[in-house]
UniProtKB/TrEMBL annotation:
Gene3D superfamilies: 2.20.25.10, 3.30.300.20. It holds the Pfam family OsmC. This is Peroxiredoxin. It comes from Noviherbaspirillum autotrophicum.
């Protein structure tokens, strides 16, 4: 896996990252740091990437467990160190999992497996931060209708 990050110019603090898979992501800094607030901060992307990594795992594990999962949201709330390097010190993951007749024990197991075995991002983050988790299940009783 590789990624190239390029500063876009002499003014401001906007960077473009091109991933090995050919996708481009913009990053920028806060105005007080010389940025123009045009894109997410790099650390916001670290947090978002961690959320995406673990949500991916949870959906995959629940599907393999034959659960009728219809949605998965994860909200991450974090705290960072006050001094440089301003690493994450606490991150709370709250999962909202939607589906039909989901078994709470399997949802809990999927989250645990993600954070202890499969999600590389959260396992790395755990080196500096206290990670906590919670979840809720929303029973999706509505059938999708096609027009």
């Amino acid at each position: 896996m590789e990624c190239t990050v390029r500063w876009t110019g002499l003014s401001g603090m906007t960077f473009l990252a091109e991933t090995g898979s050919g996708h481009v992501v913009a990053m920028d800094g806060a105005p007080e740091g010389g940025g123009r607030d045009l894109a997410p901060r790099p650390m916001e992307l670290v947090l978002a990437g961690t959320g995406g990594c673990t949500a991916y795992d949870v959906v995959l594990i629940l599907r393999k467990s034959q659960q009728d999962i219809r949605g998965c949201d994860v909200t991450l709330k974090s705290e960072r160190a006050e001094k440089d390097p301003k690493v994450f010190t606490k991150v709370h993951f709250h999962f909202t999992v939607r589906g039909r007749n989901l078994k709470p024990s399997l949802v809990e197991r999927a989250i645990k497996l993600s954070h202890e075995k499969y999600c590389s991002a959260s396992i790395m983050m755990e080196k500096t931060a206290e990670l906590t988790h919670s979840f809720e299940i929303v029973d999706d009783l509505t059938e999708a209708t096609s027009a």
